[in-house]
Structures are given as C-alpha cells and as structure tokens.
Amino acid sequence: MAGQFTDLVNDLGYSKTFYPHSKVTAYLNGLASRIYLGIYRNKKEESSRIVRFWKTELPMVVRRYHREILYSFIIFFLFSVMAAFSAAHDETFVRGVLGDQYVDMTEDNIAKGDPFGVYKSEDQVSMFFYIATNNIEVSFMVFIAGFLVSIGTIWQLFHNAVMLGAFQYYFFAKGLGLQSILVIWIHGTLEISSIIIAGGAGLVLGNSVLFPGTRKRLDSLKRGGKDGLKLMIGLVPIFIMAAFLEGFVTRYSRMPVALSASILAGSLLFVIWYFVVYPIRLEKKSRPL
C-alpha cells in the first residue's frame, strides 16, 4: 500500500501540474486521501506510545522536576515530625486531628487484641474501590491546589502530614510502633509516596505561575500544567496498587514479619528506583557524548 501510495502521489503531482481542473485529478486526489488514511489508521502506534510514556517520557518529566518533588518531601516530612512532636506534648492533639470516633474505635480494637481491625471492617472489593477513589481524590486535590500559587499545595501537604504524624505517634505511644510500621506501611509506602509526588506536581503548577522565567506567564502555566498532569497520570497505577494492598493485604495484620517487611521493602525500592534512580540514569544516557 505504501508503494502504491508513492506512485499515486507522483501521478497526482503530474496531473495537478498539467491538468489541474481535470476529473482525473479529482479522482486521483480522492484515491490518495483514502490510501493515506488507510495507512495511518492502521499504523500500530498506540501501544508503542504507551510504552514510550512509561519508559521514557514520564521518567524524564520526573527528572526535570526532582527539585520540586524533593521540596514536597521535605515539607511533608517536617510537618509530620511537627505533628508527632505536638502529639507527644499534648494529649488532646491526636483526638483533635483524627477525631474522637476514630480514636475510640481504635482503642476498642486494641483492647480486643486487634489494633488494626479497622482494615477488616468492610469486604475487600468495597474497601478497594473506596480507598482507590479516595487516594486519587486526595492526590488530585494536592495537585490542583497548586493553582493557588503553590500555597494551596503546601496547605494540602500540611493537612495530610499532620494526620500521618498524629496517626503514627498514636501507635508508638501505645507500644505498637514497630507493628504499625509492618502493617500500615504495607500500603502506606505507595500511598504516602503518591501524595508527596502529587505535591511536587502541585509545586510545578504553582511555580509556573510564580516564576515564568523568560516565557509569558500563560505559556509557562500551560507547560507547568501539562507536565504536572503527566506526573499525576503516572501516579494512577500506584494509587490503584496502594488501594489493592490496603483492601486485600493489610487486613492480614498477623502475617509473618518477613512477608510484611518484603512487601514494604519492595514498594519502597520501586519508588526509589522509578522516581529517583531510573530518571537520573535515563538523563545521563540521553546526553550527547
């Protein structure tokens, strides 16, 4: 078909030159259009485009904004530590952050000998869909809040970090620190990493408005929005995997320590490799010698 198309284009060019108003010219033009559409409609491009996005395009975007992702991590970590410190010096802080109902329910579960019973309160499928939806909603709120010149993203990071810091301190105060890490961070590793990266995407969006550089502010915003959205699309599978782990795996809080630690370590290594190490290596390979 490609060979016929080449010959046809040559004939069409000749016909347009010497017989521009001929019916043959119109016929050849229509025929060439149909063959052109046939070639490119059947072109198997979509699958390779998807592979290229995950293999090259997304990691290069991540690499371009490593600094913003690092800032997001630092902000989230500092707010979490501040929350844990506040909880250690104020007995009412945890209840103020997590709510009386949640704390009372958890204390009741601890008294029953099942401190992480909250993860068994619903069936797996319902819990999976609820958590996946919630994770996506929270992370996109962190990203979209970047429109408020990054301040909105920082506020969202503060809100989520305070909840995490108070939540984690609560279990340490009850003598369940190590157990909580082995259970909660099975899904928490991917979940919290996603929120931090979403925070980086929000800072990219906000900084594109604050610091347009040599570009027009609107052009800078378009670029920041496009790159930030790519980061968010890249997080969707991680949201889903985190929801799967929380809905189907975390409920087995009495699983062997080795298995729990392996899942946690595997999640952490994946995040570090795909979002830190691999983008740096890819950038070095792409540099001209």
From TrEMBL:
Domain of life per record: Bacteria
Keyword Transmembrane helix: yes
One Pfam entry name: SpoIIM
TM helices/strands, residue ranges: 69-88, 138-157, 169-186, 192-211, 231-249, 255-277
InterPro entries in the cross-refs: SpoIIM-like (IPR002798)
Extent of the signal sequence: none
Keywords: Membrane, Transmembrane, Transmembrane helix
Classification via PANTHER family: SLR1478 PROTEIN (PTHR35337)
Name of the protein described by the UniProt record: Membrane protein
Organism: Puia dinghuensis
